[in-house]
Design brief:
about 150 residues; Umud Fragment, subunit A; DNA binding; transcription
Length: about 150
């Protein structure tokens, strides 16, 4: 196995019409939050270069992580994998993001409000929406935007 190719998505000895995006060994919680420690590469998923280019995605900014929990059901289920663009960290309304809150990694809808608050919501109505005052809450950051997901049935 070409480890360089799995980690970077770039072939050393030639071009390919596919890029392998590394899957890191963390789970973004669609629930109360979870982080698995160090971000080690755990294989990867292949994506068409054309598909990525059409969406303006840069392979070096992409990671695949696993969803854990029920708060984003039915959009994302427990065990689904999501393609995260770590170069897109400015929340846009109606988009899903991976959010680091303290030591918890979450997948949620995020909306930046005019008063400096970050509104965090779930697809599942059983999980309440809440606001985070970014100026008063250290340790909160947007890791990246969810650009695609697999869906387990």
């Amino acid at each position: 196995m070409d480890t360089h190719y799995v980690v970077t998505g770039e072939r050393i000895n030639g071009d390919s019409s596919y890029v392998v995006v590394p899957q890191i060994d963390v789970a973004a919680s669609a629930g109360p939050g979870a982080i698995n420690g160090d971000e080690e590469c755990n294989g990867g998923l292949s994506f068409s270069r054309q598909w990525l280019h059409k969406r303006g995605l840069q392979p070096n900014n992409l990671k695949v992580i696993r969803v854990s929990g029920e708060s984003m059901r039915p959009v994302m289920n427990d065990g689904d994998k999501v393609l995260v663009d770590i170069g897109d960290t400015l929340p846009k309304s109606g988009r899903a993001y991976v959010l680091l809150q303290g030591d918890e990694l979450l997948v949620k809808y995020c909306q930046l409000l005019p008063d400096g608050l970050l509104r965090v919501s779930s697809a599942n109505p059983n999980y309440p929406t809440y606001d985070i005052d970014l100026a008063k809450t250290p340790g909160v950051s947007i890791v990246g935007r969810v650009r695609a997901s697999t869906h387990e049935w």
